[in-house]
Amino acid sequence: MSQPALVLHHYGSSPYSEKIRLAFGIKGLDWASVEIAALPPRPLLDPLTGGYRRVPVLQVGADIYCDTNVILPALDRLASGPSLYAGLPAGLSKAATFGFERDVWLAAIGVRVHFTGDGPADFLRDRKEDYLYIDMSHAAMEPDYPRHRQRVAAHVAWLADALSDPGRPFLGGDRPGALDLGYFHVLWLMRNGPHAEAVDRALGLEPILPWYARVTALGHGRPTALSPEAALTLARDAEPAPIEMRVAGMEAPGLAVGRAVTVTPDDFARIPVRGSLVALDAERIVIRREDEKVGTIHLHFPRAGFEVAAIA
Ligand SMILES: N[C@@H](CCC(=O)N[C@@H](CS)C(=O)NCC(=O)O)C(=O)O
Known about the structure:
By secondary structure, the protein is of the alpha/beta class. The protein is 41% helix and 18% strand. It is built from 11 helices and 10 strands. A 10-stranded mixed β-sheet has the order 5-2-1-3-4-9-8-7-6-10, sandwiched between helices. A hairpin with a 2-residue loop joins strand 3 and strand 4 (63-66). The longest helix is centred in the N-terminal third of the chain and has 27 residues, at 90-116. The model has no long low-confidence stretch (mean pLDDT 96). Glutathione is lined by residues 14-16, 39, 53-55, 67-69, 131, 268, 305.
């Protein structure tokens, strides 16, 4: 398979970005790394995303993949290297990851804040107003710490059970995959830093630390730094790739190819992205946008966790 240029827009402390960096490691890929700010403004990313503000974003020429739930299947489809869905049915892996991330994301942030205290004021303001819609200061989250700890610990116990067979180094068996990464990055959010051992004690992580070390050792593949300006040029000079899917089955009235639509996350950072509908099936939505800096681009979103609506 010829290797398309894979560009990841991300920042170092982002757990969802770590999920994708490790996927590059599993697949042994070369990739271009565009480091972005941990909070907006991100003026050199906006032309590519049309307002989608979460991180990471994968760019393959003029195709932009928003959300890790669409990035991982895209990597598997487009890039060489071992499958991210070896050992387990892909649907099981996707469903378990989605459910786990949804159930524990705020609780995991609460656990982290318990051990690390407050971030800077502008960070707290941004996360409250434009991302999580809650106050993630230590003072606001601390009363919920026992509930948050308990919620995460219940999932950790299931994870420990799933990994209890010593002949099973990864969740899918001998080979690492997307499900390992879905669990790992949330634990990484909480453990990353000098307080790791305290987190281990609080959550009962001891039994799964050998697995955690194995996932860490997968590494990040081979990144090369790319400037955001060069990424915009790559998009401008490329055409969106032909897509293999069309609008399929049983959809709401008005969802036809070419129709103006919005695509909006249904959990955090609920900012609608406008475009014209290119394709939609049970797993993915693709919309087309025109931008003066980058020309025509296709944005790809997962169905799970996003709402698509025709614009009246
Ligand atoms: N469901 C999304 C969640 C992404 C997400 O919440 N990412 C965090 C960073 S790890 C984020 O966007 N935080 C706000 C920001 O960086 O602007 C995915 O799988 O990509």
